[in-house]
């Protein structure tokens, strides 16, 4: 990926056009020591280099370093190092001849101390690493590293219900509703760590959570599709309710956006003695309908209603236990993730 495509207009670039090595002391053998830098977890870049040649009356100078993606035409300055040069008498008339040390010099830099805030954010949020060479410049001479460093690629995921629906949207108490939901990350894939879960709740007309059906793990690294069958609790009075899906309700994953984890849709519970066609919910942002199906969707308002998607402490409320799923069994048979809520209650 080219430098100018990281974030146009934010990254500070400096002309680094290659020039013929006319100076008598020049850098070379530039070698990036740590070629993988999963910024921001690791921040220190280490570069080995040598200085060659000699000069008369060299009063010392610095070696400047930059990250580049286009062979040195442009780049991001990452600091400088003092060249190890010593001078002594030599030649006719006692002229001062200066030569660099023959040993390897090492430049170490903490990227946090040299990168702009914009650049640090770009690298920290990147889902794949950016690849750079290092350019070392001394006087009017310069040299590119023969190898590259990959920086970044550790961006956080953003889990959400990307699509979903349930049917029917009108049921009698005790009947079943089938929920279909696709959970994915809107940002980076989650390559490791604990998998988040998809939890299902029932809320009343005031959008207060009144029942927890259970939860099922989401497949890493990119997400999974789920079909979940839940019963409308026997004894529910007729009226408006909401099915609420919460991703990562226990916050086991640090996400780029924690405010889009809730999806929900309206459902109508009718008296079992009442028949007829399905009733479409009212036209509102949180539920669009087509016939007997309600589509799950997300709004900021919904997410604020369930900032902590835990069931409230309600005296006498019965809470369904979530089904325990063995992690090994989950990944060996991911297509069997479908969860059926059973009428099992806490004692």
From TrEMBL:
Q: Name one Pfam family in it.
A: CARDB
Transmembrane residue ranges: none
Is the keyword Signal assigned to this protein?
yes
Q: Which InterPro entries match?
A: CARDB (IPR011635), Ig-like_fold (IPR013783)
CARDB domain residues are 160-262
Lineage, top-rank taxon, reads Bacteria
Show which residues constitute the signal peptide: 1-23
Q: Which UniProt keywords apply?
A: Signal
This chain belongs to the protein called CARDB domain-containing protein
